Automatic annotation (TrEMBL):
Binds 1 FAD per subunit. Disulfide bonds join C43-C48. Its cofactor is FAD. Transmembrane segments: none annotated. The active site is a redox-active disulfide bond. This is Dihydrolipoyl dehydrogenase. One of its GO terms (biological process) is 2-oxoglutarate metabolic process. Residues 5-328 form the FAD/NAD(P)-binding domain.
Length: 466
C-alpha cells in the first residue's frame, strides 16, 4: 500500500494532464496514471499534433510545387522526402510529450506508468512494470476515446488504416479512399492528396462536415473539390476485401439502390470515435456507461459514485482537446472548492484544411430549429485587401446575431487562418458581445480579421467595403 494522493487522474491526455497540473497549482498532491508510455494522450501522440505537423509540411510542399509561381517566386526541383517529413512529425510529437513530462516534474505530479483500474472508490490498481495500488481522496477518469470500427472493413493499419496508420504511411498511395467526410477524413485526405494521391471521400450523409453551418460546408466542399478531392456523398461502405494489389470496397447508396465497388491502394476509416473505458473496472464500482459507452456525469463532472469524476472525450460532447482541457481545469477547481465551469456555448471548432474552416456557437440550421429570430451578416475574403495580397481569397465570414438584442449567437468562417480568426469572436461571445460591439472595435489594417469586422457590420446592413 502506498501514499494517499488528493487526486489520482487516470489518463494523461489533454483532459487528464491539464487537470493534474491545475490541481497541483491549487496545492493538491496529484498522481497521473498513463498506460501509453508517453504523456499527451491521443492529441499529442496520434491526433492533433502529428496531424498538424503533416498538414503544415504538405501545405508547404503543395505551395512550393504549384502556387509560389503565382506570386513571382519561381521554384524548381521541388521534391518530396517523405521519410524526412515523417521524422519531423515524430520529433514534434516526442518534443511535445517530453514537454508534458517536464511540466509534471515542475508541478511535482507523480507520473505513474501503467494501466489504471479502479478497484474501489479511492483505490486505483496500476499494472505497469509491476502492479501497485494507489490511494486517492478523489479520482478523475480521463481515458479518452478510440477509433470507431466499421463492420466489414477490418483495420489492419497497412491497407485499411485508422487515423493512426494514416499519419504514418511509408509511401504515397496512388488511390486513397476515405470513409467519412468528417474532420479526420478531410484533414488526412488533404495531407495525402497534396502529396499526390487520388483521394475519394465516401460519406453516408448527403453533405460533408455534419456539425458545421450548411452554407459554410457547401463552400468548403466546392473549394476542396476544386483542389482535386472527390466526394461520393450519400453512400455507405458495406464491406472490404484486401488483396495483393489493394482493397476493393463495396458501396451502396445510403437510401438504398444498386451496389458498386471502388478500388483503392489504401483506405482510411474515419467515421468517428467512441469512448474508451476498457479495463477501467467501472462495473466493480457501479458506474454503468450509457448505451453509446460514454460515462454519465453531473454538473460538477462527478459520476454517480462519490469521489469519482470523469472529463474529456470519455464523457461525450465535442471530442476536442481544448474542451477536454477546460473540463480538466473546471474539475480541479471544483475539487479545490472554487467554482470551475465550462461555457459550452463558446467552444470553437476548427478543421485544419486549406483554407481552414472554423465555427463557434450556433449554426443557422440550429437557430431555425430552435425558433430563434436572428440576423445574418456575411463578408467574402475576395473583398479583403490582405486576402488579395496573400492570394487567399477563397471563403467568407458569416455571423449570426440575435434579431432583437444583436448579441452574437454564432460565427462561421471558411478561409485562410480561420482557426485564428475565430478566436476574437469566442472572446466576444464569452463577454456577451453584440455584433455592433465587435464591429465598432478597431481592427488593424491590412488584416484578414477585418473580414470579421465587416461581417459584424453586415449584420446591421452597413459593411463598408462591399
Ligand atoms: P485522450 O487524449 O484520448 O487521452 C486519454 C489517455 O488515457 C490516453 O493516452 C490513453 O492511453 C490513456 N488511458 C486510457 N485508459 C487508461 C487506463 N486504464 N489507464 C491509464 N491510462 C489510460 N482535437 C482538437 O481539439 N484539435 C485537433 O486538431 C484535433 N486533431 C485530432 C486529430 C486526430 C487524428 C484525432 C484522432 C483526434 C484529434 N483531436 C483534435 C481530438 C483530440 O485528440 C481529443 O479530443 C483529445 O485528445 C481528448 O482528450 P482526452 O484527455 O479526453 O483523451
Ligand atoms: P466525425 O464525427 O468528424 O466524422 C465522421 C463522418 O463519418 C461523419 O460525416 C459521418 O456522417 C460519417 N460516417 C459515419 N458512418 C459512416 C459510414 N458507415 N459510411 C460513410 N460515412 C460515415 O469523425 P472523425 O472525422 O472520425 O473524427 C473523430 C473526432 O475527432 C471528431 O469528433 C473530431 O471532433 C475530432 N477531431 C478533431 C479535429 C479538429 O478539431 N481539427 C481533427 C480530427 C479529429
Amino acid at each position: 500500500m502506498s501514499e494517499v494522493y488528493d487526486l489520482v487522474v487516470i489518463g494523461g491526455g489533454p483532459g487528464g494532464y491539464v487537470c493534474a497540473i491545475r490541481a497541483a497549482q491549487l496545492g493538491m498532491k496529484v498522481a497521473c496514471v498513463e498506460k501509453r508510455g508517453a504523456l499527451g494522450g491521443t492529441c499529442l501522440n496520434v491526433g492533433c499534433i502529428p496531424s498538424k505537423a503533416l498538414l503544415h509540411a504538405t501545405h508547404m510542399y503543395e505551395h512550393a510545387s504549384h502556387h509560389m509561381g503565382d506570386l513571382g517566386v519561381a521554384v524548381s526541383g521541388v521534391r518530396l522526402d517523405l521519410p524526412k517529413m515523417m521524422s519531423h512529425k515524430d520529433k514534434v510529437v516526442s518534443d511535445n510529450t517530453g514537454g508534458i513530462e517536464f511540466l509534471f516534474k515542475k508541478n511535482k505530479i507523480a507520473y505513474i506508468k501503467g494501466a489504471g483500474k479502479i478497484t474501489a472508490p479511492g483505490t486505483v490498481q496500476v499494472s505497469g512494470a509491476q502492479v501497485q495500488t494507489v490511494q486517492a481522496k478523489n479520482i478523475v477518469i480521463a481515458t479518452g476515446s478510440d477509433v470507431m470500427p466499421l463492420p466489414g472493413v477490418a483495420i489492419d493499419e497497412k491497407r485499411i488504416v485508422s487515423s493512426t496508420g494514416g499519419l504514418s504511411l511509408s509511401s504515397v498511395p496512388g488511390k486513397m479512399v476515405v470513409i467519412g467526410a468528417g474532420v479526420i477524413g478531410l484533414e488526412l485526405g488533404s495531407v495525402w492528396r497534396r502529396l499526390g494521391a487520388e483521394v475519394t471521400v465516401v460519406e453516408y450523409l448527403d453533405f460533408i462536415l455534419p456539425p458545421m453551418d450548411g452554407e459554410i460546408r457547401k463552400q468548403a466542399q466546392r473549394i476542396l473539390e476544386k483542389q482535386g478531392m472527390n466526394f461520393r456523398l450519400g453512400y455507405k461502405v458495406t464491406g472490404a476485401s484486401t488483396g495483393k494489389k489493394g482493397v476493393s470496397l463495396k458501396l451502396e447508396p445510403s437510401k438504398g439502390g444498386a451496389g458498386e465497388t471502388l478500388d483503392a491502394d489504401v483506405v482510411l476509416v474515419a467515421i468517428g470515435r467512441r469512448p474508451y473505458t476498457e479495463g477501467l473496472g467501472l462495473e466493480s464500482i457501479g458506474v454503468v456507461p450509457d448505451s453509446r459507452g460514454f460515462i454519465a456525469v453531473d454538473h460538477d463532472y462527478q459520476t454517480k459514485v462519490q469521489g469519482v469524476f470523469a472529463i474529456g472525450d470519455v464523457i461525450g460532447g465535442q471530442m476536442l482537446a481544448h474542451k477536454a482541457e477546460e473540463e480538466g481545469v473546471a474539475v480541479a477547481e471544483l475539487l479545490a472548492g472554487q467554482s470551475g465551469h465550462v461555457n459550452y456555448g463558446a467552444i470553437p471548432s476548427v478543421v485544419y484544411t486549406d483554407p481552414e474552416i472554423a465555427m463557434v456557437g450556433k449554426t443557422e440550421e440550429q437557430l431555425k430549429a430552435d425558433g430563434v429570430a436572428y440576423k445574418v451578416g456575411k463578408f467574402p475574403f475576395t473583398a479583403n485587401g490582405r486576402a488579395r495580397a496573400n492570394n487567399t481569397t477563397d471563403g467568407l465570414v458569416k455571423v449570426l446575431a440575435d434579431a432583437k438584442t444583436d448579441r452574437v449567437l454564432g460565427c462561421h468562417i471558411v478561409g485562410a487562418m480561420a482557426g485564428d480568426l475565430i478566436q476574437e469572436v469566442v472572446v466576444g461571445m464569452e463577454f456577451g458581445a453584440s455584433a455592433e460591439d465587435i464591429a465598432r472595435s478597431s481592427h488593424a489594417h491590412p488584416q484578414l480579421g477585418e473580414a470579421i469586422k465587416e461581417a459584424m457590420l453586415a449584420v446591421d446592413k452597413r459593411p463598408l467595403h462591399i
